Amino acid sequence: MKLARKDILGIRELTVEEINLVLDTAESFIEVSTREIKKVPTLRGVTVMNLFYEPSTRTRTSFEIAAKRLSADTINIAAATSSVVKGETFVDTAKNLEAMNPDIIVLRHSAAGAPHMLSRVVRQCVINAGDGAHEHPTQALLDMMTIREKKKRIAGLRVAIIGDIAHSRVARSNIYGLTKMGAKVTVGGPSTMMPRFIDRLGVELHHHVDDAIRDADIIMMLRIQTERQDMSVFPSLREYANLFGLNRKRMALAKDDVIIMHPGPMNRGVEISPDVADGPYSVILDQVTNGVAVRMALLYLLSSGGN
Amino acid sequence: MNLLIKGGRVIDPSQGLDAKMDILVENGKISKIGKSIPDGGAKASKKASALQVIDACNLLVLPGLVDMHTHLREPGYEYKETIETGSEAALAGGFTSIACMPNTDPTNDNRSVTEFIIRQAAKCGLVNVYPVAAISKGSEGKGLTEFGDLLEAGAVAFSDDGKPVMAGGLMRRALEYAGSFGVPIISHCEDATLSAGGLMNEGLTSTELGLPGIPSISEEVMVARDILIAAYTETALHIAHVSTAGSVDLIRDAKKRGVRVTAETAPHYFCLSEEALTEFDTRLKMNPPLRSTADVAAIKKGLRDGTLDAIATDHAPQSSIEKEVEFEYAANGIIGLETSLGLSLRLVEEGILTLPQLVEKMSLNPAKILRLKKGTLKPGTDADITIIDPEKAWIVDVKKFRSKSRNSPFGGWQLKGKVIHTIVAGVVKFTDRE
Predict the structure, then answer these.
(1) How confident is the prediction along chain A (307 residues), in pLDDT tens digits per residue?
(2) Do B212 and B96 belong together in one domain?
(3) Do B208 and A172 touch (CB under 8 A)?
(4) Mutation test of the interface with chain A: which of B209, B216, B218, B321, choosing the one with the most A Cβ atoms within 10 A?
């Protein structure tokens, strides 16, 4: 079992078979995290560098735990966002890290395409841990894993993704992944947050959230970046919560057995009301648990497939 | 030394000429065009050795190409390009005259900078360099520069290129004031509030890549505004680097109504489209950005029907410092002097333009727009001549560029049609040695 590629830059270029391979492998790793001694020697001697140009608690910790449970050595680098005018360039940093011979570099960067650039300049495997508003492939994989776990399938399900699609890498990766796996994806949110021609990515577009979530099997809420109200993308948090937030009443439009997902961190009371976030349909914390397994699977598949 | 160019196909739209002819050049000027000018036709037959004969059999002999939109980066950014290296690149690309934009450091917004550029160009003695001076001081869009003084120093037009003139009031005054001197305003049309933060064309590709978009309307609303102001003030407006279908429509319509508007586009806007950006290649980042395939088709149509008068390069050198960074942080710009002719000849191959039409757009029209006595082979004018082999295929090798910079996405492209000789004021300044 191998992933015949050097890097995981996005979901867009993955095949259905590759996605299934990652999800199957991840499922087999869940058990490791429930053992008394949560460690297997699989990746002993492998070095994983977490290069984070953007603050992140969840994703970085998840990658670190995933690597440690496989006995890999991990190094975390929190880098200041590169700048043209001062400091070391991204390429120079990358080449310096390459010279220390890590095996896998996990990159989070605020600039879309940075992982692609990294993969061009270093020989190591690169895993994209989120690049700008482009892709967040491990998030989409853990989301798909959670959906499969709860619903036993992905094909044929109705998934509503609600919020700031234009600025969301989570939305893009999930749109690419879920449509590939045969789900029916609808997106909803203010028209100012819908990127141009989004419908051409094979999703159904609704400007009224009620229409987007009607009969949904899964509702995926996106985090709202509150600073965008200054840019006239939406008028106020109050109006956003009223028109686009997920509350119990609105949730009733979805299927009875709907599950609620959120990539975190949540703005309680804005895109999601506390009773929904903490309610019985919420699988938000299962997503986090599965995140470790998905990342273990990728580290494993890349390091055994890379050489 | 005098020159006799024999047996080439001479294409000179200024005289409606397209025939196999000889051209005699004496004292830096065209002295005669005709069928079979004898070698002894040079005045001083006793100094026959002083007559250089160029065999132009199977070659095209054109009025020297004129690029009305380049960035030479000197003064201030000599690590990207200098007047000398930019002129060398121009010669290799068949250009005998180039107009350079004022976004240097310091900005070309006063006589001393204009004079410096002209002095440097004279020192290199390669091509004719015509400075375009800034519309506003520091191109900051506030007060007008001293148009009269700048024109006297040698500026040929005014532009804040690189930045839009956001205030309609200032654009009105600039057009009126420039109009009183009989020179055009070259407008970089962009509503900066609509393009703010944008990194590429807003469309399906930007949606796929998650890159903030620059909508076509950011260009078009300014094209519309400037056309309205030019019509109202009855002045001459030239629109730089047209990239969208909407702009082409607006300009076509304005021309029909008799507005004094001219426009240019650049080869990348008819050779490349937004889909090329999928790999986040910073060499494809420029402003205005590469647009959709529908825009590319509209640009070609605009060139064909005459809406777009000129092909300019918008040669914008950037070093690896500006380009080998994350896409978001990379500077805009693409170099073009050495590929423009080869890329533009594809339009002839595709049947969009005839050869004489192409020569008009790359030589006669830009000269006319800038009020230069160039772009012609009429006897008595400066002998600026470009001789090309239209059949010669070549592969673009950025390592061989004369330009100091390498920011071209065309490396590896196979092009047909290569410059063989570039002649400025009767002197052969460039000869292809390959």
Answers:
(1) 678 899 999 999 999 999 999 999 999 999 999 999 999 999 999 999 999 999 888 999 999 999 999 999 999 998 875 444 457 889 999 999 999 999 999 999 999 999 999 999 999 999 999 999 999 999 999 999 999 999 999 999 999 999 999 999 999 999 999 999 999 999 999 999 999 999 999 999 999 999 999 999 999 999 998 776 667 788 899 999 999 999 999 999 999 999 999 999 999 999 999 999 999 999 999 999 999 999 999 999 999 744 4
(2) yes
(3) yes
(4) B209
- B294 and B396 share one domain: no
Q: Do B328 and A198 touch (CB under 8 A)?
A: no
Domain containing residue B267: CATH number: 3.20.20.140
* C-alpha to C-alpha distance for A81 and A96, rounded to whole angstroms: 16
Which residues of chain A does B280 touch, with a Cβ-Cβ cutoff of 8 Å? 112-113, 116-117
Tokens of B208: 């796929």
User: Does A82 sit within 8 Å of B210, measured CB to CB?
Assistant: no
Residues 255-284 of B with CB under 8 A from A: 279-280
Annotated catalytic residues of A are 58-59, 86, 108, 136
CATH code where residue B33 lies = 2.30.40.10
B211 interfaces chain A, CB cutoff of 8 Å: yes
- Residue B86 domain-assigned? yes
Minimum distance, in Å, between the CA of residue A91 and any CA atom of chain B = 7
Choosing from B12, B67, B314, B382, the catalytic residue is B314
Strand pairing of B237-239 and B185-187? parallel
Q: Could you give the CA distance from residue A159 to residue A176 in angstroms, rounded to a whole number?
A: 13
> Number of folded domains in chain B?
2
Out of B204, B280, B322, the one facing A197 most closely (by C-beta) is B204
Contact B211 A134 (CB under 8 A): yes
Q: Using CA of residue A125, residue A148, residue A133, residue A86, what is the dihedral sign? A: negative
Say which of B210, B212, B329 has its CB closest to residue A84.
B329
pLDDT tens, residue by residue, B18-54? 999 999 999 999 999 999 998 764 555 555 557 999 9
Do residue B331 and residue B363 come from a single domain? Answer: yes
In-domain check, residue B326: yes
User: Do the domain assignments include residue B205?
Assistant: yes
Instruction: Verify that B140 and B232 share a domain, yes or no.
Output: yes
Identify whether residues B224 and B313 lie together within a single domain: yes
Q: At what angle do helices A137-151 and A284-305 cross, to 10 degrees?
A: 120
Residue B375 domain-assigned?
A: no
Beta-bridge partners for A125: A104
Contacting B residues, span 309-328, partner chain A, CB-CB under 8 Å: 321-322, 324-328
Q: Does residue B137 contact residue B143 with C-beta atoms inside 8 Å? A: yes
E strands of B135-201, at which residues?
157-158, 185-187, 200-201
pLDDT of residue A233: 86
- Show the beta-strand stretches assigned E in chain A: 47-52, 73-78, 104-109, 125-131, 158-162, 184-188, 204-206, 218-221, 259-261
Among the candidates B316, B344, B369, a domain finishes at: B369
From chain B, the residues in CB contact with A114 under 8 A are: 326-327
Question: Is residue B135 domain-shared with residue B275, that is, in the same domain?
Answer: yes
Domain final residue pick, B320, B343, B369 = B369
- pTM confidence score: 0.95
Which residue in the set B206, B213, B328 is minimally distant from A111, CB to CB?
B328
- Do B174 and B241 share a domain, yes or no? yes
Query: Would residue B241 be called left, alpha or beta, if left means φ above 0 and alpha means ψ between -120 and 50 degrees?
Result: left
Q: What angle do CA B39, B40, B43 make, to 5 degrees?
A: 120
The residue segments making up the domain with residue B94 are 64-369
The answer, for A110 touching chain B at a CB cutoff of 8 Å, is yes
Q: Which two tokens stand for residue B162?
A: 């690189």
Residues B21 and B162 grouped into a single domain: no
Mark yes or no for CB contact B326/A117 under 8 Å: yes
